[in-house]
From TrEMBL:
Gene3D superfamilies: PgpA-like (1.10.3760.10). Pfam families: PgpA. Residues 38-157 form the YutG/PgpA domain. It comes from the Bacteria. This is Phosphatidylglycerophosphatase A. CDD domains: PgpA. Signal peptide: none annotated.
Amino acid sequence: MKKNSEYYTQKAREWLLERGVTIEDIGDLVFFLQEAYVDGLTKEQCIEHIEKVLQKREVQNAIMTGIQLDRLAEQGKLDDPIQGIIERDEGLYGVDEIIALSIVNVYGSIGFTNYGYIDKKKPGVLQKLNDKNQGCHTFLDDIVGAIAAAASSRLAHSVEETE
Protein backbone atom coordinates (compact mmCIF):
# COMPACT_ATOMS: atom_id res chain seq x y z
CA MET A 1 0.00 0.00 0.00
CA LYS A 2 1.50 3.31 -1.08
CA LYS A 3 1.38 6.08 1.52
CA ASN A 4 1.31 9.75 0.63
CA SER A 5 3.57 12.47 1.95
CA GLU A 6 0.93 13.79 4.35
CA TYR A 7 0.76 10.38 6.03
CA TYR A 8 4.53 10.33 6.63
CA THR A 9 4.54 13.93 7.81
CA GLN A 10 1.77 13.16 10.30
CA LYS A 11 3.49 10.01 11.54
CA ALA A 12 6.78 11.85 12.06
CA ARG A 13 4.98 14.62 13.98
CA GLU A 14 3.08 12.07 16.11
CA TRP A 15 6.23 10.16 16.95
CA LEU A 16 8.05 13.36 17.94
CA LEU A 17 5.18 14.30 20.22
CA GLU A 18 5.04 10.79 21.73
CA ARG A 19 8.72 11.21 22.62
CA GLY A 20 8.04 14.56 24.29
CA VAL A 21 9.10 16.94 21.52
CA THR A 22 6.71 19.61 20.28
CA ILE A 23 7.05 21.80 17.22
CA GLU A 24 7.17 24.73 19.65
CA ASP A 25 10.20 23.14 21.37
CA ILE A 26 11.97 22.98 18.02
CA GLY A 27 10.80 26.54 17.31
CA ASP A 28 12.62 27.66 20.48
CA LEU A 29 15.79 26.11 19.09
CA VAL A 30 15.42 27.84 15.73
CA PHE A 31 14.82 31.12 17.54
CA PHE A 32 17.94 30.48 19.65
CA LEU A 33 19.99 29.96 16.49
CA GLN A 34 18.63 32.89 14.47
CA GLU A 35 17.55 35.67 16.84
CA ALA A 36 20.88 37.50 16.56
CA TYR A 37 20.73 37.46 12.76
CA VAL A 38 17.09 38.17 11.86
CA ASP A 39 15.60 41.47 12.97
CA GLY A 40 12.13 41.09 14.45
CA LEU A 41 12.24 37.32 14.33
CA THR A 42 9.09 35.66 15.67
CA LYS A 43 8.38 32.15 16.86
CA GLU A 44 5.73 31.93 14.13
CA GLN A 45 8.42 32.45 11.47
CA CYS A 46 10.53 29.74 13.06
CA ILE A 47 7.63 27.30 13.10
CA GLU A 48 6.78 28.08 9.47
CA HIS A 49 10.26 26.96 8.44
CA ILE A 50 10.11 23.86 10.65
CA GLU A 51 6.86 22.84 8.96
CA LYS A 52 8.57 23.05 5.56
CA VAL A 53 11.49 20.95 6.77
CA LEU A 54 9.10 18.31 8.11
CA GLN A 55 7.51 17.98 4.67
CA LYS A 56 10.71 16.53 3.22
CA ARG A 57 10.57 12.73 2.90
CA GLU A 58 14.24 12.36 3.83
CA VAL A 59 13.52 14.21 7.08
CA GLN A 60 10.45 12.09 7.82
CA ASN A 61 12.43 8.90 7.22
CA ALA A 62 15.24 10.05 9.51
CA ILE A 63 12.78 10.92 12.29
CA MET A 64 10.96 7.60 12.10
CA THR A 65 14.15 5.52 11.81
CA GLY A 66 15.86 7.25 14.73
CA ILE A 67 12.84 7.10 17.00
CA GLN A 68 12.29 3.43 16.20
CA LEU A 69 15.90 2.61 17.09
CA ASP A 70 15.62 4.57 20.35
CA ARG A 71 12.41 2.68 21.21
CA LEU A 72 13.99 -0.68 20.48
CA ALA A 73 16.99 0.20 22.65
CA GLU A 74 14.68 1.22 25.53
CA GLN A 75 12.93 -2.13 25.24
CA GLY A 76 16.24 -4.02 25.17
CA LYS A 77 15.38 -5.51 21.77
CA LEU A 78 18.69 -4.91 20.02
CA ASP A 79 21.52 -7.43 19.99
CA ASP A 80 24.77 -6.75 21.82
CA PRO A 81 27.02 -4.93 21.36
CA ILE A 82 24.74 -2.41 19.56
CA GLN A 83 22.22 -2.50 22.43
CA GLY A 84 24.76 -1.18 24.91
CA ILE A 85 26.30 1.28 22.49
CA ILE A 86 22.95 2.94 21.79
CA GLU A 87 21.84 2.79 25.45
CA ARG A 88 25.03 4.56 26.52
CA ASP A 89 25.03 6.94 23.52
CA GLU A 90 28.72 6.23 23.07
CA GLY A 91 30.70 9.14 21.68
CA LEU A 92 32.47 7.12 19.01
CA TYR A 93 29.25 5.57 17.67
CA GLY A 94 28.44 8.47 15.32
CA VAL A 95 25.60 6.81 13.40
CA ASP A 96 23.12 9.06 15.21
CA GLU A 97 24.99 12.11 13.92
CA ILE A 98 25.10 10.68 10.39
CA ILE A 99 21.31 10.39 10.33
CA ALA A 100 21.08 13.96 11.65
CA LEU A 101 23.46 15.20 8.95
CA SER A 102 21.14 13.81 6.29
CA ILE A 103 18.56 16.30 7.58
CA VAL A 104 21.01 19.17 7.92
CA ASN A 105 22.26 18.66 4.37
CA VAL A 106 18.83 19.41 2.87
CA TYR A 107 19.34 23.20 3.16
CA GLY A 108 23.02 23.75 2.48
CA SER A 109 26.30 24.15 4.30
CA ILE A 110 25.09 26.71 6.86
CA GLY A 111 23.12 23.85 8.38
CA PHE A 112 26.34 22.08 9.38
CA THR A 113 27.47 25.11 11.36
CA ASN A 114 24.07 25.52 12.99
CA TYR A 115 23.93 21.83 13.85
CA GLY A 116 27.43 21.72 15.33
CA TYR A 117 26.72 24.74 17.49
CA ILE A 118 23.37 23.56 18.82
CA ASP A 119 24.65 20.02 19.36
CA LYS A 120 27.47 21.41 21.50
CA LYS A 121 25.32 23.90 23.48
CA LYS A 122 22.27 21.60 23.93
CA PRO A 123 19.74 24.32 24.80
CA GLY A 124 16.06 23.80 25.60
CA VAL A 125 14.55 20.45 24.73
CA LEU A 126 17.97 19.07 23.73
CA GLN A 127 19.12 19.26 27.34
CA LYS A 128 16.02 17.30 28.42
CA LEU A 129 16.59 14.67 25.71
CA ASN A 130 20.16 14.17 26.92
CA ASP A 131 19.01 13.28 30.44
CA LYS A 132 19.57 9.51 30.61
CA ASN A 133 16.80 9.26 33.23
CA GLN A 134 14.26 10.39 30.61
CA GLY A 135 14.66 7.40 28.31
CA CYS A 136 16.90 6.57 25.38
CA HIS A 137 17.15 9.45 22.94
CA THR A 138 20.47 8.63 21.30
CA PHE A 139 19.04 9.38 17.87
CA LEU A 140 16.26 11.80 18.77
CA ASP A 141 18.40 14.53 20.33
CA ASP A 142 20.53 14.71 17.18
CA ILE A 143 17.48 14.57 14.91
CA VAL A 144 15.73 17.40 16.77
CA GLY A 145 18.90 19.50 16.65
CA ALA A 146 19.19 18.77 12.94
CA ILE A 147 15.57 19.79 12.26
CA ALA A 148 16.23 23.07 14.08
CA ALA A 149 19.49 23.57 12.16
CA ALA A 150 17.81 22.86 8.81
CA ALA A 151 14.90 25.19 9.62
CA SER A 152 17.41 27.86 10.69
CA SER A 153 19.26 27.44 7.41
CA ARG A 154 16.04 27.69 5.43
CA LEU A 155 15.14 30.83 7.38
CA ALA A 156 18.58 32.35 6.81
CA HIS A 157 18.29 31.69 3.07
CA SER A 158 14.91 33.43 3.01
CA VAL A 159 16.15 36.67 4.61
CA GLU A 160 17.49 39.31 2.28
CA GLU A 161 20.95 40.66 2.90
CA THR A 162 20.79 44.35 3.87
CA GLU A 163 24.49 45.20 3.70
